Every structure is written in C-alpha cells, then in structure tokens.
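so my prof wants the structure for this chain in the tokens format not the other one, which i didnt know existed until like an hour ago. anyway here's the sequence
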Amino acid sequence: HGLVVDEDRQRAVFLEFAFAGALTVKALRQYVRDLVARLAPADAWSQFRRLLVERCAAGMPPYAALPQDVRALVKAAGLDRETAERDLVADLIGSPGVVRAPASFWTAY
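here's what i got, hopefully its the right format
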C-alpha cells in the first residue's frame, strides 16, 4: 500500500510484544526481511541492531539464526563484517539476555 512506517514506533511495538512473550523467532526474522524491503541497507542494519541491543538489554536472549541475519544486513549495507559484528557483540555482552544465548551465537562470535 505504500504507507509510511514510523520505524521507531514499529520497533517499540515489536519490543512490547517480544517482552510479553508473544513474538516468535519467525516473526523476528520476518521483521528483518520487512526492514530490508522498506529501508536503505544501512538504515535497515541500524534499526535491526538497535532492536537487538534493546531486546537483549531487557533480558531476551539472542536467537539462534541471529548471526545469519546480522551478516546478511551488514553485507547489504556494505559494512566491514568483522567491525560490525565486534561492535554488536560489545554492546550485547553485558546485557542480561546474552547469558541465555544459544550455542550457535557463541560459535559464530
């Protein structure tokens, strides 16, 4: 329909549902695809990264396929993968959610 999306509002609502336990990993991965379809690659990465940091800071663990989604967005944005991933992990490492991260997260990073 071509409607303008308020990205900050959508992220806030998305987080609200995630915190309530009403958001599946499938929905989270669809959010990534929607960001890619709506935004420039660098903006999609920025929005997704912010969501990840806020989500983990609130105690939600990273999901198993997170490294694949991160790498796809980083590549599309033309960013250095190692730098982008190091910066993301640095922001996540002290959050309460990261202690419950799946093995695939730790293997990737």
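also thought this was worth mentioning. The mean pLDDT is 93.
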